Structures are given as structure tokens and as C-alpha cells.
Amino acid sequence: ATEGKEEASAAENNPSRVPQGKPGERSSVLYSAGQFFFEYLVVVSLKKMSDGHYEPKITYQFPKRENLLKGQKEEEERLLQAIPLFCFPDGNNWAPVTEFTSETFSFVLTNVDGSRKIGYCRRLLPSGRGVRLPEVFCIISCLGCFGLFSKILDEVEKRRQISMAVIYPFMQGLRESPFPAPGKTVTIKSFIPESGTELIKLTRPVDAHLEHVEFQALLQRLSPHLILHIFASAVLERRLIFLAEELSVLSQCIHAVAALLYPFTWAHTYIPVVPECLLDTVCCPTPFMVGIQMRHLERVLDQPMEEALIVDLCKGKILRAVGDEEEILPIKLQNEMLTSLNRHNNNNNIHTSEQVNTLVSEAFVQFFVRTVGHYALHIKWSKNGSGTFQERAFCKAIASKTNRKFVKKFVKTNMFSLFIEEAEKSRIPQEGKR
């Protein structure tokens, strides 16, 4: 869906350790413990061109790849071409500065086969005197775990202030460590001149499907009422555009919206921060979920666009809507979810972000349990073990009229079809039922 269609092997010597992604699968489930932490660390710097503009270029790459097969080499080149664009999506108008607040954000590159890679970025000002340009440290990984990679970027930034040379042994140690299982910790030894050897503990959250998420980011900017409008649009796979100036706000909020759909997965165009040169993505007739910097608002509104939901994350309001968002979700369930979200909002200050994640996720998972949780009872199993989903019987079994009206629309979505396709292959939960 995006520009970076890449499949550079995460383990050139041991390709069997790289499972192939199926469209719509979630990276955090697909790439489990024991995988490599990351594929690349790259530094993207701004280089002045002859016309006075700055262009982002990769100035450092670890590891360097040797002995790649022709196909892999092309994939790698494609990946390395796409990265700079997403590290500096805000265009080429830069000027050297003496102060700059470092920021963390992430982007997603979708492969031809639907599998996804995530770029975790820290944009910072290199240490030194006088005016200088920010640079971006970007870690490319198949693993979705924002909190963990933010911590790794903290370590990278700390070392960057000493010297680039100190980053290499740390990343090498990380590359040699297996990715921990949910709830487990991996310890990396790292030597820093003048401070001696440090032990860095990296712990993965217990709940793997929430490790790329900060629901608090959404609750701080939008009312529960608006969050439900956005959820309703996402559930029916509409076009969603989010606006904010900060890259970190865009990427956090969009990841959070996508995570509300769990156990379903957004399977369409998904660009948390759209680079300036790809702004015409908003003209797509197909569903998309994209983040755009506020400075491009006029340009976006001028585009010939199909119906879309446009959300201003700075002011916490909806700028453009289809108009029926209020009526998509069954009213009784909608009110239950509102009560639930309001409760978390009121006690926001006493919950840790993990608790908020669990509470919010639970409210949305319950919504799906109440509407489509009986799906497994309507898969008919043949003697050879293959399943067929009985859609009519499944919809008929819903007693509530309003729930049935919603489900009849939801079963037509791509995310429901992909979910059912997986269920038809895995017979485990319904053993013994014919």
C-alpha cells in the first residue's frame, strides 16, 4: 500500500526464521519470540542540494549486507529508498538550528504480500556547538512493540551524544539477542566509555496485542463520543484522515485507532505519517487510514476526494464526516462503551498507561464478543477438516434487530473475511462439533 515494498530477509544465513506474512496479519502476532529484534538501524541526515533545499539521505546503515541474491538486493534497495522519505515526511524546508526537542514516531511499510515492517524513529539534534540540522535514527523491524523500541532509541540517543562509535556495539548486542516472549525480559550488556558496563533490561508487555499502543494518546485528544465515531467508520472500512502537526501525535493516535479493531486487523492502506510527496493518497477510492501534518490541511481539502472522515487531533474535533457515524453502531452497545470510556477518562490520572490500554481494549473487544462472538458455532466442518462459514445462519442467530443490522454490514468487510478465512483453517476451538 505504501512506497516501501520490501522483503529483505531478516536473517540472511537462516531464512527459515523469517515467517512469511499473510495479508492482514498482525506483525506482533506473526513475528513471535525468538525473532531478531531488528533488520536495520539507519541514520538519515539532511543534505543540502544545489537549489538550496535539503534532501534526506541515509548516511549510516547497520548491518551492511553482503552476498544478497539478486531479488533480495532489489528489495533491499527499494526499502532503503523509501526510508528517508518517511523519516522526514515534512518536506525539504529546513534550516539549521541550535535547539530541537527530540521526537519519537513510527511508520509502516506494507509489502506486496501484505506483511508489514515498522520503522521506529527518533529525530534529534546531534551534540555539538552552533547551528546544526536534526537527523533521524530509524530502526526497521518486523516486530510491533512501540514501548520497547522507544527504550532502545533512548539508549541510541544517549550513545549518540558520546559518539557514533558507541552505538555500534550496543546494536550488535541487540542483534545477537532473541526477541523476548510476552512478559519476559532480555538483558543486554553494553560498555560505555567513562561509565563502564551497563545492563539494559528490555521487557515485553504481557499482552502482546497491546504492545504497539498508547490509548491514552487518543483519550487525551478526543472525547469518548468522537472516538466511537472514528471506531464506527474504521469498522466499516471507510476513509480516515487524521491531522496534527507533531509526527509523534499522528503515529501514536493512528496506531491506537487501528488497535481498537482487535481481534480484527485493518487490511487497507495505512500510513501513520504521509510524506509530503504522497499527499495525493487521499484521492484513493479505496479505504485508507492516514495521518497528515496540519500544515498540509489546505492542500488536502483541495484534493478531489471521496467521502472521508477528517479528524483534527489538535482541537479534538471532526472537520468533515459522512454524517451517519452516530447510527452505525447499535445504540445499546454504543452507550455501554461510552460509559466504559468515560469511566477511564475520569480516573485517567490514577491508571498507568498499561491499565488504560487494558481497560479500553476490553471495552472494544466486548463489543465484538457481543455482536459476532458466536461466529465459531456457524462454521461447518467437513470430514477432511476444512471449514465453511454459514453466513446466513450466523446473521439469523442474532436476536437483537439493531445488532443484526450492524452485523449484516460488518460481514461484508475485508477484515471480517480475513478473520473468518483464518478461522476456517483452524479447527481447534470447535472440536467435536459437526
Distance between the termini: 39 Å
Query: Which class best fits the helix and strand makeup?
Result: alpha+beta
Number of strands: 14
Question: What's the average pLDDT?
Answer: 81
- Main sheet properties: 5 strands, antiparallel
Low-confidence stretches: 1-34, 429-434
Describe it.
The protein contains 14 helices and 14 strands. Strands 2-1-5-4-3 form a five-stranded antiparallel sheet, sandwiched between helices. It has 434 residues and is an alpha+beta fold. Residues 1-25 are annotated as: Disordered. This is DENN domain-containing protein 2D. InterPro entries: cDENN_dom (IPR001194), dDENN_dom (IPR005112), DENN_C (IPR043153), DENN_domain_containing_2 (IPR051942), Tripartite_DENN (IPR037516), uDENN_dom (IPR005113). Keywords: Guanine-nucleotide releasing factor. Residues 39-430 form the UDENN domain.
